[in-house]
Write a structure and sequence with these properties.
With about 80 residues, the chain is an all-alpha fold. It contains two helices and no strands. Helix content is about 90%, strand content about 0%. The radius of gyration is 32 Å and the shape is rod-shaped. The protein starts with a helix and ends with a helix.
């Protein structure tokens, strides 16, 4: 009779250990995916900021030779 209890207890421990292992792997994969999304979002933000700076620089560029000469003379280039 005690042999059955021991067997049931061992099987329960093995199943619980397997369930904990699977839950840990799933949590680890979710954390890794969240970190990858964070890195991708940071990369996209940096690219967007660079594009914004380029657009601002293009908008502030002199439109002709005279405007360029005036900016160079004024020291605001």
């Amino acid at each position: 009779m005690t042999g059955w209890f021991a067997l049931v207890f061992i099987v329960a421990v093995v199943i619980a250990t397997a369930a904990i292992f699977a839950a840990g792997r799933k949590a680890g994969a979710a954390a890794e995916a969240a970190k990858a999304r964070e890195v991708e979002l940071k990369s996209q933000k940096e690219a967007s900021d660079a594009k914004d700076r380029m657009l601002e620089a293009g908008a502030a560029a002199p439109c002709d030779r005279d405007a360029l000469a005036d900016r160079l003379r004024g020291g605001t280039f």
